[in-house]
C-alpha cells in the first residue's frame, strides 16, 4: 500500500476527463430521446435501494473515464485497506473500522487489528447496550424513586448527536408512545432548558454521549443536567440534599457512551453503566456504535440490529461489486465530476420523506467534516477543489423555498432525490378539492407525483417554443423557460425500514470515502474544528469581565465583546 496519495490530476484518466469535458454538451432530452436503454443501463441496485443515475449529466464515456480514474487512484486497494483495518486515518495514525461495527456475527475469518479481536469486542459491547435497552424498556431499570423511565435525554454534539437524532426521527413509527427520546446538543442554555422544562425528574434518564468525554458543550450540558436532576428530585422530596443521595441519583439517572471510561467515572457515572467504543470509529461514523444506545432504548435491540444489517448490505456491495456497478463508487465519482469538471460547489439532498427531515443535517457533518480539507493525507496541498457543500430539506417543503434556484439559477446543483414506495402513515384525502385532487386521493401518491415531476422538470426543462405554444406573451417567454439539464439522482426503496435507513447511511459514508480517495485526503480526521474550540476557551474570560483578556483581543472581537458586556 502506497503511503503517498496518487495525485488524481496527474493520471491519464484525469487528462482524458479534461478532454471529455472540453467536448461535453449536456443533453438529457436528446440522450433520452435517442437512447431507450439509458434509464436501465444507468440504474443500479444496492441492498433494497434502486439508484437511478440516468438523469445525471454523464454519458457512457463519462462513467468509463470516472471508473478508470478510480482505478488509477487505487480506489479498490483503499477500500480493502479500510475494511481490513490499515491505518488509513494517517494524521491520527488510526484504523477506520466503522464497517466492523456491522459485520455479520460469526464472519470468518475473524477481524483482528493491531492485536485487538475486533469482532469479539464489538459483539460484547452490542450485547451490553442491548441488555441495558431491554432493562429500560421493561421497567426493570428504574430511577431513584423506583419509577420506570419515560424520557431519555441524549446529551451529545456532532456525531454523538446528529446520527442518533436523525435515526430517531426517521424510525419514530417503530417507537413506543410511553418512551420518548430528546436530544440536547447546543451549549446555548435554551436547548437544555426547553428540553427539560416539562420533564419529570423521577422518570428521566440522561445518556451522556461523547467519544472523548471532553467536549465543552456536552460536559457543560451534562453538569447542568445533573444539577437540574438534583434540584428537581430534591424539590419533590425524592432525595435529601446530601452528597450520597446525589451520587445515588446520578447512578440511577445517568449512563454514558464514551471511549474515555476514566472520565465517565470521574463525572460520577457508574462505569458499569458506560458503553464503550473505540478510537477507530470516527464521531460522524458512530451512530452504529454504542452512540446509538438511545436508539436501542427507543426502538429495542432488534430494530437496532436490523439497522446494522442494512449498513452491512451496502458495505458488502461496496467491497465486492465491480466499480462499473458499484453504487457508492459511481455516486462518489459523479460528485468528483461535478465538483472538479462541471464547477458545482454544492450538492442538494432532498428526501421525499418527512421522517428524514434531519438527514441533510446529518450528511453535512458526514460529508463536510470528512472532506473539507486543503491538504492531502501526506500533508501536501490538494491539487484540485475538494469537498462539496451538502444541504437540503425534505420535499415538498423545499419546492416552495429554494427549488427556484435549482430550476432556473445560474449554478449547477446536483441533487439526490430520495423516496419510498410505501408510507409510514397511509392517508387519503376523502374530500379532495373537486379540481386537481380527486376525492379519496392517496396522499402519498400525490407526494410521489411531486418527486417524479421535479426530477423530470429539472432534467428536461421546458423550451421557449413549448412556452410560446401555451400562448405566453413573448416578453414573458424567457422567464418561463426552463433550460433543463439539471442533474439529479433518484434513490428509491420499498419503505423506510430500519434496514433501508442503514443502507442509506452506509451509501453516503462510502460516497464520502470515494471522493476523499480521489482527492487524496484523510476523510477521517477533523483538525479544522480544533482552533475554534481553543479560541472559545481563550476568549471566555474576556466575555465574563476580565479586562486584561479583553485587551488581548483583536479590535473587532474587542468591540463585539464590549457590546455584549454593555448590553447584558
Ligand atoms: O466537531 C468535532 C467533533 O470532534 C466531531 O468529530 C465529533 O462528532 C464531535 O466533535 C463530538 O465529539 P465527542 O463525541 O468526543 O464529544
What would your notes on this structure say?
It is built from 23 helices and 15 strands. Helix 9 packs across helix 10. The longest helix has 22 residues. The protein starts with 11 loop residues before the first helix and ends with a helix. The structure holds 6-O-phosphono-beta-D-fructofuranose.
Oligomer: single chain
Fraction of helical residues = 40-55%
Shape: globular
Radius of gyration (Å): 26 Å
Largest sheet: 6 strands, mixed
**Biggest sheet strand line-up:** 1-2-15-12-10-11
Ends apart, CA distance between termini: 57 Å
**Unique ligands:** 6-O-phosphono-beta-D-fructofuranose
Low-confidence stretches: none
Catalytic activity: alpha-D-glucose 6-phosphate = beta-D-fructose 6-phosphate
Family: Belongs to the GPI family.
EC number: 5.3.1.9
Pathway: Carbohydrate biosynthesis; gluconeogenesis; Carbohydrate degradation; glycolysis; D-glyceraldehyde 3-phosphate and glycerone phosphate from D-glucose: step 2/4
What is the element layout, followed by pairings?
Elements lengths: L11 H12 L4 H7 L3 H4 L1 E4 L2 E4 L7 H13 L2 H9 L28 E2 L2 E2 H21 L12 E5 L6 H9 L9 E5 L4 H8 L7 E6 L6 H20 L7 H11 E5 L2 H7 L6 E3 L16 H7 L1 H20 L6 H15 L4 E7 L6 H13 L17 E3 L11 H6 L6 E8 L5 E2 L11 E2 H18 L3 H6 L4 H4 L10 E8 L2 H22 L10 H15 L2 H5 L3 H13 L1
Parallel strand pairs: 5-6, 5-7, 7-8, 8-9, 10-11, 10-12, 12-15
Antiparallel strand pairs: 1-2, 2-15, 3-4, 13-14
Helix pairs in contact: 1-4, 4-14, 6-12, 7-15, 9-10, 12-13, 13-20, 14-20, 15-20
6-O-phosphono-beta-D-fructofuranose binds next to loops.
Amino acid at each position: 500500500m502506497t503511503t503517498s496519495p496518487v495525485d488524481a490530476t496527474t493520471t491519464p484518466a484525469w487528462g482524458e476527463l479534461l478532454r471529455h469535458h472540453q467536448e461535453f454538451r449536456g443533453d438529457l432530452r436528446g440522450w433520452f430521446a435517442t437512447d431507450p436503454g439509458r434509464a436501465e443501463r444507468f440504474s443500479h441496485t444496492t441492498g433494497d435501494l434502486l439508484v437511478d443515475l440516468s438523469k445525471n449529466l454523464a454519458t457512457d464515456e463519462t462513467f468509463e473515464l470516472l471508473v478508470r480514474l478510480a482505478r488509477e487512484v487505487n480506489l479498490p486497494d483503499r477500500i480493502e485497506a479500510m475494511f481490513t483495518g490499515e491505518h488509513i486515518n494517517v494524521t491520527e495514525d488510526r484504523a477506520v473500522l466503522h464497517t466492523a461495527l456491522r459485520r455479520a456475527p460469526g464472519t470468518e475469518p475473524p477481524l483482528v487489528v493491531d492485536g485487538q479481536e475486533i469482532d469479539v469486542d464489538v459483539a460484547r459491547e452490542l450485547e451490553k447496550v442491548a441488555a441495558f435497552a431491554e432493562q429500560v424498556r421493561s421497567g426493570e431499570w428504574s430511577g431513584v424513586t423506583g419509577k420506570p423511565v419515560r424520557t431519555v435525554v441524549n446529551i451529545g454534539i456532532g456525531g454523538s448527536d446528529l446520527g442518533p437524532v436523525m435515526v430517531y426521527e426517521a424510525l419514530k413509527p417503530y417507537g413506543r408512545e410511553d418512551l420518548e427520546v430528546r436530544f440536547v446538543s447546543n451549549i446555548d442554555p435554551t436547548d437544555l432548558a426547553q428540553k427539560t422544562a416539562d420533564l419529570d425528574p423521577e422518570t428521566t434518564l440522561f445518556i451522556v454521549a461523547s467519544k472523548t468525554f471532553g467536549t465543552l458543550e456536552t460536559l457543560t450540558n451534562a453538569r447542568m443536567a445533573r444539577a437540574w436532576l438534583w434540584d428537581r428530585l430534591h424539590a419533590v422530596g425524592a432525595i435529601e440534599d446530601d452528597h450520597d443521595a446525589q451520587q445515588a441519583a446520578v447512578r440511577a439517572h445517568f449512563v454514558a457512551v464514551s471511549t474515555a471510561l476514566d472520565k465517565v467515572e470521574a463525572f460520577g457515572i457508574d462505569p458499569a453503566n458506560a458503553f464503550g467504543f473505540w478510537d477507530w470509529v470516527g464521531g460522524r461514523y458512530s451512530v452504529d456504535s454504542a452512540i446509538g444506545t438511545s436508539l436501542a432504548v427507543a426502538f429495542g435491540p432488534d430494530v437496532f440490529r436490523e439497522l446494522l444489517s442494512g449498513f452491512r448490505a451496502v458495505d458488502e456491495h461496496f467491497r465486492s461489486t465491480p466499480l462499473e456497478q458499484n453504487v457508492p463508487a459511481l455516486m462518489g465519482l459523479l460528485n468528483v465530476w461535478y465538483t472538479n469538471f462541471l464547477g458545482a460547489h454544492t450538492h442538494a439532498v432532498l428526501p421525499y420523506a418527512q421522517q428524514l427531515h434531519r438527514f441533510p443535517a446529518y450528511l453535512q457533518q458526514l460529508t463536510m467534516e470528512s472532506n473539507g480539507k486543503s491538504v492531502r493525507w501526506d500533508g501536501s496541498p490538494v491539487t484540485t477543489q475538494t469537498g462539496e457543500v451538502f444541504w437540503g430539506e425534505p420535499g415538498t417543503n423545499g419546492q416552495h423555498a429554494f427549488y427556484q434556484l435549482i430550476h432556473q439559477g445560474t449554478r449547477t446543483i446536483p441533487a439526490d432525490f430520495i423516496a419510498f414506495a410505501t408510507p409510514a402513515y397511509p392517508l387519503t384525502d376523502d374530500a379532495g378539492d373537486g379540481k386537481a385532487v380527486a376525492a379519496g386521493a392517496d396522499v402519498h401518491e400525490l407526494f410521489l407525483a411531486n418527486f417524479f415531476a421535479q426530477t423530470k422538470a429539472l432534467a428536461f426543462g421546458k423550451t421557449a417554443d413549448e412556452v410560446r405554444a401555451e400562448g405566453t406573451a413573448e416578453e414573458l417567454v424567457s422567464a418561463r423557460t426552463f433550460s433543463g439539464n439539471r442533474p439529479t439522482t433518484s434513490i428509491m426503496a420499498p419503505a423506510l425500514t430500519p434496514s433501508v435507513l442503514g443502507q442509506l447511511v452506509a451509501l453516503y459514508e462510502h460516497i464520502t470515502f470515494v471522493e476523499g480517495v480521489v482527492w487524496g485526503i484523510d476523510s477521517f480526521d477533523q483538525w479544522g474544528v480544533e482552533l475554534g474550540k481553543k479560541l472559545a476557551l481563550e476568549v471566555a474570560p474576556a466575555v465574563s469581565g476580565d479586562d486584561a483578556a479583553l485587551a488581548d483581543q483583536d479590535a473587532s472581537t474587542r468591540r463585539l465583546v464590549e457590546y455584549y458586556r454593555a448590553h447584558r
